[in-house]
Amino acid sequence: MSKFSNFNFAGHKALVRVDFNVPLDASFNITDDTRMRATLPTLRKILGDGGSVILMSHLGRPKEGPADKYSLKHLVKHLHELLSGVEGLGGQTRVFFADDCIGEQAGLTASMLKGGEVLLLENLRFYKEEEKGDEAFAEKLGKLGDVYVNDAFGTAHRAHASTAVIAKFFTPANRMFGLLMEGEVISAEKVLHGAEKPFTAIIGGAKVSDKILIIENLLQRATDIIIGGGMAYTFMKARGGKIGSSLCEDDRLQTALEILEQAKQKNVSIHLPEDSVIADKFAADANTNTCPSDAIPDGWMGLDIGPKATGIFNEVIGKSKTVLWNGPMGVFEMDKFQAGTKAVAESVAAATAQGAFSLVGGGDSVAAVNKFGLAEKVSYVSTGGGAMLEYFEGKSLPGIAAIKE
Ligand code: AMP
Prior knowledge:
Layout (H helix, E strand, L loop, with lengths): L12 E5 L16 H5 L1 H10 L2 E5 L19 H8 L11 E4 L5 H9 L5 E4 L6 H5 L2 H8 L4 E4 L24 E3 L1 H15 L5 E5 L4 H11 L5 E4 L4 H7 L3 E2 L9 H14 L2 E3 L3 E5 L8 E5 L2 E2 L4 E5 L1 H12 L3 E5 L12 H15 L3 E4 L2 H9 L8 E2 L3 H8 L5 H7 L1
Parallel strand pairs: 1-2, 1-5, 2-4, 3-4, 5-6, 7-8, 7-15, 8-10, 9-13, 15-16, 16-17
Antiparallel strand pairs: 11-12, 11-14
Helix pairs in contact: 9-10, 11-12
The structure holds adenosine monophosphate.
The site of adenosine monophosphate has 16 residues, from strand 14.
């Protein structure tokens, strides 16, 4: 593979896989363009070098072929606005659209693209071949450019035609990660393979079952694992605690005990929340109280970590040199139950200010650092929810492997 920043794109047609799967309202206005903005540095570099860009993406989950609702044509105007003002191009970036991602028109437009011009292809998932990882389809896409750039970390865990299979139609020198993807890969590798100790993983969220694999993998690497959120109560019950009507996966009690046992053997400290903020119903206007997490009265449920737990977690995070955070400590969407997640976000920011490397990933923890205005105060915020989770489960991601091979 080549290193993106060392590559001179002058005279090249770069086929760039991006994640433009943005939310649209009923009138097809983009309601959050974060994913489009995230890939701008990559596009600016290619265009600034004098190369041309052919963009491939999916949008939504079209079931049966083309559907207006999922057309990428709705993004063209905004893409043009975002790209205007690219240095050296006098703000005149032309953006073309091909209403089929393969076929004659796409081929012709791609072949006629000049340096500094952009072609956006129609939704890849209008072809079922995309998600099936069909080789012939990937080869057709591959013919549109002479360099392949993957900047879509969010789909790196999928062996789809445009995210993985296509890479083999380019020589190693002509395939690379874009800047967004490179940032994700470097941060994730730093935490998984080069973490400075003490390394604390903070795992929260609703279900143990979603996070078993990541916890098991982290048991090989972390010095401390903090477990918060709804999943903590399965551990509490497994240890013989009373958890009232808190969230619990009864079929995972044995798994929880095994995780605690493995941690003991590997000398990894698992920190469960000593106390909880409890509520008499799952609602923003519930009555609340605080009690030990293993002595929750009947009819009450733990919806946030309590003040003692917050203090202990803060200490553990404060002495860490590496922090990975996935999943909230409580139902942070409701004001009454956000304090624990907010305090953890602040602890991670404080540790970062003192030199720790911190990586926050997974939809809800990213939403939390954004909600508390702390996204700029952690080392890296990962945009790839599912991909990030699979990476930390220790799986090889097809999108990464295909570029590196
Ligand atoms: P996940 O997608 O598994 O990371 O879970 C995130 C969701 O877990 C958020 O919507 C939280 O509101 C929810 N959550 C966190 N703590 C609790 C809890 N103690 N009880 C119920 N739900 C929770």
